[in-house]
């Protein structure tokens, strides 16, 4: 193999590693946000499904969706606390 080909391959590998390192934190943040959102919405659905008979329901509004999306399960608990205090 020619020496210039080895240098080009090494440069490409180095560039890929650098790009992956730069994108690792945002990808991790997006994955955590997605997990929080899914868990929060499942809990919100369970509360609305089983709590309807008890009169405990939380509307799915844009604000509630944002709270649940960013905070996940603690966001649902926060919404429940606000629902009972107001």
Task: Report helical residue fraction.
Answer: over 70%
Q: Quickly count the domains.
A: 1
Q: Report the end-to-end length measured between terminal Cα atoms.
A: 74 Å
The helix/strand series, from N terminus to C terminus, equals HHH
Radius of gyration: 23 Å
Output mean pLDDT. 87
Number of helices: 3
Model regions low in confidence, pLDDT < 50 over at least 5 residues: none
Proportion in β-strands? under 5%
Shape: rod-shaped
Largest sheet: none
Written overview of the protein:
With 86 residues, the protein is mostly helical. It has one domain (25-85). The protein contains three helices and no strands. It has helices at 3-51, 62-71, 73-85. Helix 1 packs across helix 2 (62-71), helix 1 (3-51) runs parallel beside helix 3 (73-85) and helix 2 (62-71) crosses helix 3. The mean pLDDT is 87.
SSE topology sketch:
Blueprint: H1 3-51, H2 62-71, H3 73-85
Helix pairs in contact: 1-2, 1-3, 2-3
Protein traits:
86 residues, mainly alpha, 84% helix, 0% strand, rod-shaped
What is this structure, in a nutshell?
With 86 residues, this protein is mostly helical.
């Amino acid at each position: 193999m020619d020496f210039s080909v080895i240098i080009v391959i090494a440069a490409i590998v180095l560039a890929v590693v650098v790009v992956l390192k730069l994108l690792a934190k945002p990808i991790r943040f997006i994955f955590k946000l997605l997990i929080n959102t899914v868990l929060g919405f499942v809990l919100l659905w369970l509360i609305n499904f089983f709590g309807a008979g008890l009169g405990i329901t939380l509307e799915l509004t844009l604000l509630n969706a944002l709270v649940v999306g960013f905070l996940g399960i603690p966001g649902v608990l926060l919404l429940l606390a606000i629902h009972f205090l107001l």
